[in-house]
Amino acid sequence: MLTSQPATFIEIFIENLNDFSKEFEPNAVLTKAQKRFLVICLTAILLTGSVCWAKFARTFLGKCTVGSLSWMFRNGKISWNFLMIARAIVSKFK
Q1: Does the N-terminal or the C-terminal CB of the chain have fewer CB atoms within 10 Å?
Q2: In 3D, which of 11, 6, 32, 13 has the Cα closest to residue 86?
Q3: pTM greater than the 0.85 cutoff
Q4: Tell me: the pLDDT tens digits for 32-88?
């Protein structure tokens, strides 16, 4: 499946995670690029049923590249531990 836009409900979910981060851990707030990265990855996982940078790039019709996706994952300074805790809490209360 191909798309040019990420799923709206995933964008809302990531915003809720970021809002939670602002309240409880100011150092774990996501940048605009990090939020976009997470939205693209989660939408691509939903559409492709896999975790594959090449499939993600093809799914979004060239709007992102394999290199940019893998770079953000490796070097993006995302607080993954806090993000997983926040996800569990946000999912429970929203």
Answers
A1: N
A2: 13
A3: no
A4: 888 888 888 888 888 888 888 788 778 776 677 778 777 777 776 777 777 777 777
Quick count: other Cβ atoms within 10 Å of Cβ 34? 18
- What DSSP line would sit under 4-73, residue for residue? SS--HHHHHHHHHHHHHHHHH-GGGPPPHHHHHHHHHHHHHHHHHSS--HHHHHHHTTTSS-HHHHHHHH
Residue 7, number of CB atoms within 10 A of its CB:
16
| Helix H or strand E segment including 92 | helix 80-93
Neighbour-count burial of 85, counting CB atoms closer than 10 A to its CB (0-12 exposed, 13-18 middle, 19+ buried): middle
**Residues 66, 56: Cα–Cα separation, whole Å:** 8
Angle value at C-alpha 87, between 82 and 91, nearest 5 degrees: 155
